[in-house]
């Protein structure tokens, strides 16, 4: 399927949305973005598109001379990682609860105590390898040193920066997850979804607020206050890009840390069977900014809930916790800015899902998956998401499917 015309501002909006739901308020957000004077060529919309805070999730926004911090969002560098193991279906026990429990014990997840000292989603005492990772300086300043330089210019993020040692290697909340899956060949995969944790959130909210303050100071009227931007050439822009890149790197390292923790659990459950786990390992962002060349210009490309899909790029498109997920290879479709969807996309808000989905419906939808079956995950139940099959059908000219995965175990943040 190909692109569809979804509307126009200063530039047109093209979507790969045939056969999937696109809500009116998401279209309204997209049209507001397309009205901004620094958008280059067009806005691309992925089939998992839905309304989001700041900007539409499932959108690809090329800008020249400015970045909109709220379009990037507060989960900077959020993305996916997947590893193919040597464990096979025949190796699995009939009951997977012990494996789920051990994964939950190995990776802090969720949030309690208002994020305070007893927060179950953070380390009570940071592991030694977390400190080593943050302090490593093999090829330039360490991550900790670089963050200290950012904090020196912007002390408003200092409190969150002080917690990176107990946040690295932790999952977070909401739709972040760790899963064990089976592919078509009955091989077990580990897949996880997370971002830059508290520090990424603080960097995002801090620079969004700074951008809004500048818009007020310069008397700039916007179609939506969340489209406040930072112009290139300013000191604030340089600082924001520096902080963005740091948070994106931290998010990727965070996923790698968690993956090692999960693989250690599997190594204890299946001694000698993990195999060469680097055979297929994908670690890709889907909430980030990159400098790329598109339609004759060097642009700041914001992928807000979208995965880079240049020709040959490996990516991950997860379904909901009771359906299927896909390892894909990009086709390099230039009209999508070489992008694809980052998942199934929400069909209901979290509040609506909690109100409409019953526990019985959730249990039926996650039958065969070792996961929570209580009210705490109703907002993540499969019915809250678009059908992943329809989302994949809408982007056949963006990616090809390499592996199809079925969930066995799901740990939700």
UniProtKB/TrEMBL annotation:
Q: Does the keyword Nucleotide-binding apply?
A: yes
- Entry keyword set: GTP-binding, Ligase, Manganese, Metal-binding, Nucleotide-binding, RNA repair
**Catalyzed reactions per annotation:** a 3'-end 3'-phospho-ribonucleotide-RNA + a 5'-end dephospho-ribonucleoside-RNA + GTP = a ribonucleotidyl-ribonucleotide-RNA + GMP + diphosphate
Q: Does the keyword Metal-binding apply?
A: yes
Q: Which residues cross the membrane?
A: none
- This chain belongs to which protein, by name? 3'-phosphate/5'-hydroxy nucleic acid ligase
Q: Where is GMP annotated to bind? A: 175-179, 286-287, 318-321, 325, 342-345, 412
Q: Which InterPro entries match?
A: RtcB (IPR001233), RtcB-like (IPR052915), RtcB-like_sf (IPR036025)
């Amino acid at each position: 399927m190909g692109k569809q015309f979804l509307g126009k501002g200063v530039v047109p909006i093209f979507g790969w949305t045939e056969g999937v739901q696109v809500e009116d308020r998401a279209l309204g957000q997209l049209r507001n973005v397309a009205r901004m004077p620094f958008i280059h060529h067009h806005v691309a919309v992925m089939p998992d598109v839905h309304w989001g805070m700041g900007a539409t999730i499932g959108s690809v926004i090329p800008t020249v001379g400015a970045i909109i911090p709220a379009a990037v969002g507060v989960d900077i560098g959020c993305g996916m990682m997947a590893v193919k193991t040597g464990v096979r279906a025949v190796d699995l026990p009939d009951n997977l609860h012990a494996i789920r429990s051990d994964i939950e014990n190995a990776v802090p997840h969720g949030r309690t105590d208002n994020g305070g000292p007893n927060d179950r989603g953070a380390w009570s005492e940071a592991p030694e390898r977390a400190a080593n990772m943050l302090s490593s300086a093999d090829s330039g300043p360490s991550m900790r040193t670089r963050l200290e330089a950012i904090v020196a210019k912007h002390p408003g993020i200092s409190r969150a920066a002080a917690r990176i040692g107990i946040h690295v290697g932790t999952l977070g909340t909401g739709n972040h997850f760790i899963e064990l899956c089976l592919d078509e060949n009955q091989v077990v995969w580990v897949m996880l979804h997370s971002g830059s944790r508290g520090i990424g959130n603080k960097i995002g909210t801090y620079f969004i607020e700074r951008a809004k303050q500048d818009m007020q100071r310069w008397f700039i009227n916007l179609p939506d206050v969340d489209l406040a931007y930072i112009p290139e050439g300013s000191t604030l822009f340089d600082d924001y890009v520096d902080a963005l890149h740091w948070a994106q790197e931290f998010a990727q390292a965070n996923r790698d840390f968690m993956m090692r923790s999960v693989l250690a659990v599997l190594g204890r459950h299946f001694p000698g069977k993990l195999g060469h786990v680097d055979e297929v390992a994908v670690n890709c962002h889907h909430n980030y900014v990159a400098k790329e060349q598109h339609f004759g210009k060097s642009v700041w490309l914001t992928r807000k809930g979208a995965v880079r899909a240049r020709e040959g790029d490996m990516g991950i498109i997860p379904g909901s916790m009771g359906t299927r997920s896909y390892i894909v290879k990009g086709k390099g479709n230039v009209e999508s800015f070489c992008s694809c969807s980052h998942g199934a996309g929400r069909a209901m808000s979290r509040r609506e899902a909690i109100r409409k989905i019953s526990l019985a419906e959730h249990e039926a939808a996650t039958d065969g998956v070792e996961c929570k079956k209580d009210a705490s995950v109703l907002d993540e139940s499969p019915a809250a998401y678009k059908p992943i099959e329809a989302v994949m059908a809408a982007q056949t000219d963006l990616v090809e499917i390499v592996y199809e995965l079925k969930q066995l175990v799901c740990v939700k943040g």
